[in-house]
From TrEMBL:
Species, as recorded: Dioscorea zingiberensis
Protein name as catalogued: Monocopper oxidase-like protein SKU5
Residue stretches making up the Plastocyanin-like domain: 38-152, 164-318, 402-538
Family label: Belongs to the multicopper oxidase family.
Listed GO MF terms: copper ion binding; oxidoreductase activity
Family annotation (PANTHER family): MULTI-COPPER OXIDASE (PTHR11709), SKU5 SIMILAR 3 (PTHR11709:SF58)
Superkingdom of origin organism: Eukaryota
Secretion signal, residue range per the UniProt entry: 1-27
GO CC term, one of those recorded: plasma membrane
Topology of this chain in the membrane: Lipid-anchor; GPI-anchor
Length: 597
């Protein structure tokens, strides 16, 4: 069960410091091996029993605590009753889209099979997370953290914290992922979530009307006077969340692999798919415990009160329980200007080193000439062929039976078209498997124009991009005058406010086929994604790793598939934790209290 992530992770992860001379091996870089069993677990985070997706029996899954340039080998056993792929959000998989774990590059792992991912966290540092990428499965869990530490030889731009804490926040439904799929398939929207989970647990009972008795909540144990690095990931379905810790400043230091200019926030909006690290000083007098809150943004807060995650920050010298009202959210209701200004205030520390000793800012993105421009516009869901779908530039992505990258490897024609429009498509929306033709070593400008009524966050696999601008209204060529060409932060997931645009710049130096998608699970499921294909025109095997030996095959290449006899490690879970099982809940909380002793 979800305990205190990093400590449990350490017991699950087996590390071996060897370099095996098979497959793509980077001499000298350590290997870390992970053995994962992905299966259902019956829990009741909000008091209603349901099957969630656990990894080695843990929900959320373990945090992978690794270091720049390590090679990760992750053997994934699919004990679900449906196909599975795990994707590694923000991990760049340099030269290696074969390991990206999305349908455009990988055939799914069939139920009862196992498959081993192998990739290097090359030239990266920072806080990321993994999750199951298919069919809304993330709405049932299956996520966990990826912490990539600096190598010893490279300075971190702040003192060593006294502890490292990972928090997963996200909206949650008591309906399971298969029922949620049906809602979308039937042309409805998902409606209001039933709550927000923090580390897989429901809210602390801060209000007896709003929170039922017996809900298991998360406790973070700390010592007075110490400073902790708290990594927060919004792993939810579609709700933007405001994160805050009562009476404590959040000193923002890192976002998705970039060290930021360090600034204090009393609260920060974290959109679906985004990751942030804060340094938090335990500088209060511990008259009581403190609330850790993640509450829904840009909604009618009277109606959405239930959609609030509440965990407890417990000082070892605390004199009592937290009580009274939660710390206030920003008081701006439907006005998104505050949130946009907050996002704009997050900048890159150009003088800090990161994965390499030279300053992050030595890549002067602002002086590179743009070679390709794409304006990608999404709209509210539309009906195509009688089905509810979402679009980008009028095209609703239709996944082919044969993954795009695999089709190229085998020179199959007709799997996709390389003709994604550079501007919003006029005319009726349509289904298509249309791919963006990225120029290798080109510098691409992408403008996301959100014509929907909710925040959409966009994520690009394989890359970090520079967020150079965002504003309300329609983007025009003149909008470029407002771009931040100096210290826009490099990250992999950016929010696009409704009725607004966000512009990013990306250097296409990573060969492969890369997914560009909304992280909002509902609109992603309905087709709001595309792929960018980046090919080195020179015929060399140096810029892309070979197809892995264990590749799975499907669609038109199914004949190459080496069959596995389905084998299940876990039967559909028997470990039931009911909301009212207080003794069990208490036992689960016990380990939390010993973490920092
Ligand atoms: C992660 O690993 C680093 C060393 O590689 C270690 O210093 C740190 O304590 C670990 N963090 C956690 C939370 O286990
Ligand atoms: C989801 O819940 C429905 C009942 O509402 C049930 O029939 C179905 O088996 C459940 N699916 C999973 C994966 O738990
Ligand atoms: C499945 O797991 C076994 C070990 O349990 C491993 O030897 C084998 O290579 C794995 N199969 C794949 C395709 O990764
Ligand atoms: C930026 O990084 C430098 C180099 O590590 C560090 O000394 C400085 O404090 C950082 N500045 C801010 C504002 O975060
Ligand atoms: C608990 O929440 C309800 C419903 O929002 C509200 O009416 C009530 O005042 C709250 N109780 C306390 C003690 O804050
Ligand atoms: C952030 O707030 C803490 C107090 O919580 C303070 O000690 C620190 O100086 C502040 N840092 C900055 C950069 O404002
Ligand atoms: C410290 O705790 C006392 C209650 O014991 C409270 O009255 C006081 O305001 C607190 N001080 C700070 C700085 O929080
Ligand atoms: C928010 O919801 C409440 C309760 O449904 C309603 O009374 C109120 O008018 C709504 N406020 C706005 C601004 O829509
Ligand atoms: C960018 O383009 C301008 C004008 O087309 C040209 O003068 C300049 O040399 C180019 N800069 C780079 C870095 O290629
Ligand atoms: C894709 O772009 C490359 C240049 O990067 C070009 O040579 C090729 O013709 C383009 N393909 C299509 C189908 O437009
Ligand atoms: C959507 O686009 C239409 C046409 O350009 C525009 O009138 C409308 O204001 C836009 N709505 C949003 C929320 O962006
Ligand atoms: C890469 O290509 C070179 C020459 O083109 C060849 O000698 C070498 O064996 C290839 N390496 C792999 C791993 O395919």
């Amino acid at each position: 069960m979800a305990g205190f992530r990093p400590v449990l992770a350490a017991t699950v992860v087996a590390l071996f410091w060897v370099c095996v001379l098979v497959g793509p091996c980077w001499a000298g870089d350590p290997f870390a091996y992970f053995d994962w069993d992905v299966s259902y677990l019956t829990v009741a985070p909000l008091g209603v029993k349901q099957q969630v997706i656990a990894i080695n029996g843990e929900f959320p899954g373990p945090v992978m605590n690794v270091t720049t340039n390590w090679n990760l080998v992750v053997n994934v056993q699919n004990d679900l009753d449906e196909p599975l792929l795990i994707t590694w959000d923000g991990i760049q998989h340099r030269k290696n889209s074969w390991q990206d774990g999305v349908l455009g590059t990988n055939c799914p792992i069939p139920s009862g099979w196992n498959w081993t991912y192998q990739f290097q966290v090359k030239d990266q540092i920072g806080s990321f997370f993994y999750f199951p990428s298919l069919n809304l499965q993330r709405a049932a869990g299956g996520y966990g953290g990826i912490t990539v530490n600096n190598r010893e030889v490279i300075a971190v731009p702040f003192g060593k914290p006294d502890g490292d804490i990972t928090l997963f926040i996200g909206d949650w439904f008591n309906k399971n992922h298969t029922d949620l799929r049906k809602v979308l398939d039937n042309g409805k929207n998902l409606g209001m979530p039933d709550g927000v989970l923090i580390n897989g647990k429901g809210p602390y009972r801060y209000n007896r009307t709003l929170v039922a008795d017996g809900i298991n909540y998360e406790t973070v144990n700390v010592h007075p006077g110490k400073t902790y690095r708290i990594r927060v990931h919004n792993v939810g379905i579609f709700t933007s969340l405001n994160f805050r810790i009562q009476n404590h400043n959040l000193l923002l230091v890192e976002t998705e692999g970039s060290y930021t200019v360090q600034q204090n926030y009393t609260n920060l909006d974290i959109h679906v798919g985004q990751s942030y690290s804060f340094l938090v000083m335990m500088d209060q007098n511990a008259s009581t415990d403190y609330y850790i809150v993640a509450s829904a943004r840009f909604v009618n807060e009277t109606r959405w009160k239930r959609v609030t995650g509440v965990a407890i920050l417990h000082y070892s010298n605390s004199r009592g329980k937290a009580s009274g009202p939660l710390p206030d959210p920003p008081n701006d209701f439907y006005d998104k200007t505050f949130s946009m200004n907050q996002a704009r205030s997050i900048t890159w520390n150009v003088s800090a080193g990161a994965a390499r000793p030279n300053p992050q800012g030595s890549f002067k993105y602002g002086s590179i000439n743009v070679t390709q421009v794409y304006v990608l516009k999404n709209k509210p869901p539309v009906i195509i062929n009688g089905k509810q779908r979402t679009t980008l530039n009028g095209i609703s992505y239709f996944p082919p039976q044969t993954p795009i990258r695999l089709a190229d490897q085998y020179n199959l024609e007709g799997v996709y078209t390389l003709d994604f429009p550079t501007r919003p498509h006029q005319g009726p929306p349509k289904l298509g498997t249309s791919v963006i033709n990225g120029t290798y070593r080109g510098f691409m400008e992408i403008i996301f124009q959100n014509n929907d009524t909710t925040v959409q966050t966009y994520h690009l696999d394989g890359y970090a991009f520079f967020v150079v601008g965002m504003d309300f209204g329609e983007w025009t060529e003149n909008s470029r005058g407002t771009y931040n060409k100096w210290d826009g932060v490099a990250r992999s997931t950016t929010q696009v406010f409704p009725g607004a645009w966000t512009a990013i710049l990306v250097s296409l130096d990573n060969v492969g086929v890369w997914n560009l998608r909304t992280e909002n699970l509902d609109t992603w499921y309905l087709g709001q994604e595309v792929y960018i294909k980046v090919v080195n025109p020179e015929n060399t095997n140096k810029t892309e790793l070979p197809l892995p030996d264990n590749a799975l095959y499907c669609g038109r290449l199914k004949k190459y598939l080496r069959e596995q006899t389905p084998h299940y490690k876990t039967k559909s879970s028997s470990s039931v934790i009911s909301a009212n099982d207080k003794l069990l809940g208490f036992m689960l909380l016990l380990p939390l209290s010993v973490i920092f002793l």
